[in-house]
From TrEMBL:
Coiled coil: none
Organism: Aromia moschata
Entry-linked PROSITE patterns: ARRESTINS
Region of interest: Disordered: 1-22
GO biological process: G protein-coupled receptor internalization; negative regulation of phospholipase C-activating phototransduction signaling pathway; photoreceptor cell maintenance; sensory perception of smell; signal transduction; visual perception
Any GO MF annotation of the entry: G protein-coupled receptor binding
Protein name according to UniProt: Phosrestin-1
A Pfam match: Arrestin_C
Keywords: Sensory transduction, Vision
InterPro entries: Arrestin, Arrestin-like_C, Arrestin-like_N, Arrestin_C-like, Arrestin_CS, Arrestin_N, Ig_E-set
PANTHER family: ARRESTIN, PHOSRESTIN-1
Length: 426
């Protein structure tokens, strides 16, 4: 016999695993929903994170459900908005605004003007369950659209956070120029993210070799740093092999190692860097003239270790419990990184040798990428297990809202209000 079960599970998992030992189980699919303040229009999305695969971006597929007899000749319009805030609200004076809101997609959903398209699996489920008042929609991100990034605010920052945010907006209006009313408008925050691409074959390990000579003193200190791979996943240890050869007359007093996050805000051509992990060691020090030293050091850059640091870039910010450091910005093959817009993120491992008051410092940076593992990969499973171990209290964000959905195994979750969001329900 077939036994149906409804499964509620953590918001970071899209599906619940089947059990091989128990009778066949029907997997419940989670769907996010949000309803207009007047309760007449509800928008459903199968996910909130949409992935840029470089050669294509996941489409935003969902369904709008309208109450019987509500429209009375009016229409439902859908938009994808991006808000690019590159300066603090409290610094906006004399009409100068440090944010740009752009509508990157705008379409009429009800009645649809587009030719009938094949429905995605989640749209099929929802239209079957909701009946004739369910209208599917599909939006596409434009090419080279920036990824979601939020710069962590400081204690004294009271306005909306700096960064790039995306929203799906649906509203009821008489025509395209009609902007609708707040009571019949719904706005859902989404994220556009990038995953680590599948790389075939061995890749060259990132490395750097630098030397430092001294005035009025012969010989040099050589520093070689080699990382154990090119791409790391959020929560993973970064391993670096450090080799120091002292052919000078100076001493190396100590060694400092940092994981550095580099941000470029393209709108104002501003660049800054933040340390997101660090260590200092005196092991083997002082490294005297003629001596050598080799050591493997490890760092783990985490958002949870940088909660109070203003300006650290995060991968969007929908909920505190699933936040990561911002992923490295990737561009499609044939495109130049300087063509990327929004907030461009890169990382490097920085090693500093202290050569004394007169000797100064010997510094080198080795670039690496920090990304999410691709879905379906072994690394993805490992990352999820690691993330579960480090998960924070998520009770304050509400719980699942389970409608009467035993018939076709859909678990609905209301879009949770999150801190630092736009005023969605004014």
């Amino acid at each position: 016999p077939v036994r149906k079960c409804r499964v509620s599970y953590d918001s970071r998992h899209e599906r619940s695993p089947r059990s091989s030992s128990s009778p066949q189980m029907v997997v419940a699919v989670k769907v996010f929903k949000k309803t207009t303040p007047n309760g007449k229009v509800t928008v459903y999305l199968g996910k909130r994170d949409f992935i840029d695969h470089l050669d294509h971006v996941d489409p935003i597929d969902g369904v709008v459900v309208v109450d019987d007899g509500y429209l009375q000749g009016r229409k439902v319009y859908g938009q994808v908005l991006t808000v690019y805030r590159y300066g603090r609200e409290e610094d906006e004076v004399m009409g100068v605004k440090f944010s740009k809101e752009m509508t990157i997609v705008s379409e009429q959903i009800v009645p649809s003007r587009r030719e009938k398209e094949a429905l995605t699996p989640i749209q099929e489920k929802l239209t079957t369950k909701m009946g004739p008042n369910a209208y599917p929609f599909t939006f596409h991100f434009p090419e080279m659209a920036p990824c979601s990034v939020t710069l962590q605010p400081g204690e004294d920052d009271h306005g909306k956070p700096l960064g790039v945010e995306y929203y799906v907006k649906c509203y009821v209006g008489a025509n395209e120029e009609d902007k609708g009313h707040k009571r019949s408008t719904v706005t859902l925050a989404i994220k556009k993210l990038q995953y680590a691409p599948h790389v075939k074959g061995a890749t060259r390990l990132p490395s750097s070799l630098v030397s430092k000579g001294f005035t009025f003193s012969s010989g040099k200190i050589n520093l070689e740093v080699t990382l154990d791979k090119d791409t790391y996943y959020h929560g993973e240890k970064i391993g670096a092999n450090v080799i120091i050869t002292n052919n000078s007359r100076k001493q190396v007093r100590n060694i400092k190692v940092y994981a550095v996050q580099h941000c470029e805000v393209t709108m104002v051509n501003a660049q800054f860097s933040k340390y997101v992990a660090s260590l200092e060691t005196r092991e083997g020090c002082p490294i005297t003239p003629g001596a050598s030293f080799t050591k493997v050091v490890y760092l783990v850059p985490l958002a949870s270790s940088n909660k109070d640091r203003r300006g650290v870039a995060l991968d969007g910010r929908l909920r505190d419990d699933d936040v990561n450091l911002a992923s490295s910005t990737l561009v499609p093959e044939g495109k130049c990184p300087i063509d990327a817009i929004g907030i461009v993120i890169s990382y490097s491992l920085r090693v500093k040798l202290n050569c004394g008051t007169l000797g100064g410092e010997l510094v080198t940076d080795v670039p690496f990428k920090l990304l999410h593992p691709a879905p379906g990969s072994i690394e993805k499973e490992k990352a999820q297990a690691l993330k579960k171990m480090r998960s924070m209290d998520k009770g304050r964000y509400g719980s699942f809202v389970n409608d009467d959905d035993d018939d076709d195994n859909i678990v609905f979750e209301d879009f949770a209000r999150f801190r630092l969001s736009r005023d969605e329900a004014e």
